[in-house]
Predict the 3D structure of the following.
Amino acid sequence: MFFIPILTARYFHSQNCLDEFLAFHSNARQLGVSELIAPVVLSGMGKLADENASEVSKKAMSLNCRLIENAFMEGFESREWNSEMKRMVADLNQALERSEETLARREKTTIEQYSESDRRGAAESRFADSGVDVLELLEKIDALTAQFPVVTQDFTALGTLISTVLGADFKALSVQRQRVALLELAESIEEPAHEFSNSSGKLQEEFSKIDAQLRLMVEEIASMDSEEGRLIQAQLFSGFEIPDDLLEVQQAVGNVADALKMLAMMNVNLRRSIGPATSGVRALQASIDLFAGWSEFGA
């Protein structure tokens, strides 16, 4: 971000302008990017630069100052004005590049100075402030995984409807009968699609919350950098395995997703009806992926 004050003889008589300039100048100087302040002298150059000028005025004139009084008098459509603007833009681009390099070096130095003990303390502080209780978290996970059968039941009902219509007999139907069958499917799939979308959406939302808490807990344990902490983590997550019935659902999700894509291309009415079903499939897949990923914490 640049600060480009438009200077006239009256600029430094305004307290608001003074406060604004001094605030930007102080921050830029602390960051080492003072050249991002680029004052533009529009008029009153003589008063701004003479020996009786204020200290703030002298400070402004010592920066990356651009004198455009003559170009301004020529008018906005003049060649002088256009040339001055091009030079200003080029100078600002160069100043920005140099400032970005300065800030990058500053950030790198700060990171290197941020000691291991500081990072450990920060992780412990975030964990303490989060209010995460390990045993309570494990209880939530048990309760949440118990919801999988409810969602998979909605998923199965949806898949059954689709399979019934798109079975082996579907291809044998005439084009007109296929259209009728798809219209009937669009009507019959609407309610279960919404039910599946709602249940899987809530499941994903809860899984995402717990995933964030789990990762915070793992980060806190890792910050301890002790064999005991690693052992506790391994014991906590050793039981995270995808049940066989959920593995079957995971494999079926891909097939249903492909079927939904095909249906969307076949019929406009179906395209509207299966929208919620498509969202539900994505949410269910995301929940399963999160659950499966937790087993890596125990590795």
User: Anything to note?
Assistant: The mean pLDDT is 75. Residues 90 and 136 are 59 Å apart (CA to CA). The first strand starts at residue 6 and ends at 7. The two ends are 46 Å apart (CA to CA).
